[in-house]
Structures are given as C-alpha cells and as structure tokens.
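hiii so um. not sure if this is the right channel but i have a protein structure encoded as tokens and i wanna go backwards to a sequence. like what aa goes where. can anyone help
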C-alpha cells in the first residue's frame, strides 16, 4: 500500500531530499474528488541563501517566496514569465529556505483529466514533461502555495516506485545561466533515459 510521506522525510538539505523524491508519487485531489497523480522522474535542488539560482539567494524574503522559509514538507508554488506555475517541495526546517523543483512526472492516475487540461500535448509523454506542464496537468496553481503536503487532502506525496542508484543520473540544472559558479553544479536528478523527462540525459 502506498504510504504518505511524513515531516521527517522532508527535513533535510534540498540536495539530499532530491534523490529520494525520484519514484515518489505526487497526488492532487480536485474539488470534485477526481484524483490526479504521477510518479516523479526529474527534480532540481535549490540550496537557499548560498545558491545563486535559488529564489532565497542572499537571504531574499518576499511574499512570493515566503513558503520556502517554512518547515520541510510545504509546497512552494510560484508564477513565472507571466504564464506558468512551477511546483517545489520545501526542504529543511523553518528559516532554512531550500526547496526541490519537480520538473517531470510519469502520469499514473487521471490521464483523461490531464489531457483536457493540456490539449497541446500530442502524446502522453508530453503531459508532464516539464515544470510548467506538471502544474497545468495537475491543476496546481498559487492557491496551493504553502500547502502542507503532510496533512493536506488536496496535494501530497506518497511512496510509489523504488529507484535504484544505477537508474539515477545527475546533471547541471536547466535555465540558470545567470547563476555564476552554480551553473554547472550537478543538482538536477533524473531517472536515466526515462521517456517523460523534460530533457534527455546522457
């Protein structure tokens, strides 16, 4: 039986949380009871105040990123480019603002509802193959920002598949050319060769 992830699971540095998130299932229950879910196959770790690519770099604290400053196990949803939402899992403890961006899922429940929400997706492999696609398909927006993934009945994570170390590949993160000497750090974690990734891996 799948088991919901508890607080202790999340309370670790983002780069230590990212790897175990691979193979976990992200679950979204809609207001009408429809259950959408997908298994996480790609994530990126953002290491807070020290990380030039993180929203909290240098101690930045704003209404937009306040959820990142909360306890491990919160969801951090932000709006970007005036058109897309992105979903992150908050790591560490209160006032240690680190998070893991969920970049891609393999859909497992509610595919028809996902297809309705992502009409441009020509194949099922395109439904959740990128952070904005994940949020569109899973009906995740700013109304779920700071949602407690440990207790929520709208959004949570649970156990699903075991991913072995030989299935995991690490690469630099995507789209952070502005991040100085953090650009090339291997903080993107993927299931090697998975067809649902946002970008292929070696």
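sure thing!! here u go:
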């Amino acid at each position: 039986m799948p088991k919901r992830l508890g607080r202790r699971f999340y309370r670790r540095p983002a780069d230590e949380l990212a790897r175990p998130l691979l193979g976990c299932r992200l679950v979204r229950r809609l207001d009408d009871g429809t259950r959408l879910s997908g298994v996480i196959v790609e994530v990126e770790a953002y290491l807070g105040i020290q990380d030039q690519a993180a929203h909290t770099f240098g101690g930045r604290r704003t209404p937009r990123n306040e959820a990142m400053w909360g306890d491990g196990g919160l969801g951090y949803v932000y709006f970007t480019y005036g058109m897309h939402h992105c979903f992150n899992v908050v790591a560490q403890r209160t006032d240690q603002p680190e998070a893991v961006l969920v970049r891609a899922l393999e859909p497992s429940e509610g595919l028809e509802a996902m297809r309705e929400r992502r009409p441009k997706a020509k194949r099922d492999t395109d439904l959740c193959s990128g952070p904005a696609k994940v949020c569109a398909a899973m009906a995740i927006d700013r109304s779920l920002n700071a949602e407690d993934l440990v207790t929520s009945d709208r959004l949570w994570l649970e156990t699903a598949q075991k991913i072995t170390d030989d299935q995991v590949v690490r690469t630099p993160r995507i789209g952070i050319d502005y991040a100085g000497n953090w650009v090339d750090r291997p903080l993107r974690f993927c299931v090697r060769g998975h067809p649902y990734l946002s970008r292929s891996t070696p």
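oh and The radius of gyration is 15 Å.
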